[in-house]
Design a protein that fits this description.
It is built from three helices and two strands. With 58 residues, it is an alpha+beta fold. Strand 1 and strand 2 form a beta hairpin.
């Protein structure tokens, strides 16, 4: 059964992802997750990775 994230945790995850406009070419929005991975708040696997995997597993 997938773990359900609180809306505040979900908002923090979204805020931790850097958006790069027009990369790699004009009209594309690149979502850089390295800023998320470098955030110590989300370095615990059960807080970030597992809920994401459960959501898209099937």
């Amino acid at each position: 059964m997938p773990t359900i994230m609180s809306s505040s945790l979900q908002q923090e995850l979204i805020a931790s992802i850097r958006n790069i406009v027009d990369y790699p070419k004009p009209g594309i929005m690149f979502h850089d997750i390295t800023t998320l991975l470098g955030n110590p708040r989300f370095s615990q696997r059960d807080r970030c990775v597992d809920p994401a995997l459960c959501r898209y597993k099937d």
